[in-house]
Amino acid sequence: MKQLSIKLRLSLLHTVAMTIVVAIVLALLFSISSSEVLSNVRNDLEKRVNESFNDISVLNNELIFDADFFEVQDGIYLSAYNDDSLSLLYGRIPYGFDYDLAFAEGQVRDIKVGEHNYYVYDSRVLVDGHGNLVIRGIISYDDAEKEFKTTLRIALVLLPLLVIMTAIIGYLMSKRAMQPVSKITNTVKEIREREDLSKRVDLKKGSDEIHVLAKTFDELLDDIEKSVDREKKFTSDVAHELRTPLAVEKMAIEDAMKKTKPHSKIYDDLKIIANKNEMMTKMVAQLLLLARADQGRVKIQKEVIDISELLEALCLEFKELAKDKGISLEYAIDKEIRLKVDETLFVRMINNVLENALKYSKPATTIKVALKKEDDFINISIKDEGIGIKKANLDKIFERFYQEDDSRSDNSAGLGLAIVKWIADIHDAKISVISKENEGTTFSFIFPGIKR
Fold it and tell me: Does residue 356 belong to any structural domain of this protein?
């Protein structure tokens, strides 16, 4: 039950409730109908017997019975008995019925003869010029019960069809009732997938609880969008304002270092400050890029380029840097692979990943870069044998300012991989990361090939 959607649960509950109600109503109706049918049969019997008194007369001391008395009307048999001798004088009785059944005046008795069931009603009447007669009425209620059972069977056959119709109607009603909820869900998914806070549920006018929820949700999105926009603007403004003082600070440090004796304590302190200045400058540049990207102010200029040559050039550049750290860089690049990308951003994305690989690799290890075409996709992978990333933290590494631990915080603001993720997204590339602690990390980029 917990696995089912709300629509199905509502439909199921509606169907079960309606089935129970219909079953109870049918049971009551048939119970009442059964009693009512048999009661009507008894009443008809009594009425027919009492009316038959008018069919009896005396002529010349002889009993005269009208022809209607002998006829079987509405399944009722009439017979007249002598009150003294209890002998049958006139009339008809059903085949196989006992002629000598004892009288019980004024009572409707239920008599079973073989496989048949009868109601018997006896009534005494005084006939002028003759004396007392006993008029007996007999009727079989088998047919009434048979009709009732037939109706019951039809109802039992129709009940499953009624349940199915109830389920279908209930599902359609639930689906219609849940449409606003589906719209809210789809809006949330679209906001998450596209990271577009401008989307709104925007239901039509309504005053029910779901419409109130949607309206409240839209108002919340308005507040969140305004808050995020203020944060983006603040980040952009701060990053922009910091560029000038950092540049001035860098010039002052370089000037002071020229006037200071190398390897002295002051010189070493200035060098530390210069490194921090460089880190801050890089962080501000990254912040400014991300802020502009959030605001849609980064100009993306895609063009078809030979990424095989570009990636090989980057590998050769980093190969020298890796050599200085005692690390090998190997690459296997398929030739003449072309992609439509923004060259500057593509280079920045690869550089960021290679810088991380170089930074966290151990001496005497190898960094492997590969580029190959697989069907309609282009696959780029960068594998190192460094300190790795904890499994629990793999889904966090693309968050801004995220740093796994102190070993990764050296001269890093935690923005490099956030930029990598943004660049990959605008190129419709999928990133996957495989990593094991103390064994290494592999970044894979899958780009859609150029459509011809």
Answer: yes
